[in-house]
Amino acid sequence: MKEQSLGEFEELVLLMVAAHHDEAYGVLILESLEEKLEKKVNISAIHVALKRLEKKGFVTSRFGGITADRGGRRKKFYVISALGKSMLDKQYALRTSIYQEIPNISFN
Question: What sign has the CA pseudo-torsion 78, 79, 84, 88?
Answer without folding.
Answer: positive
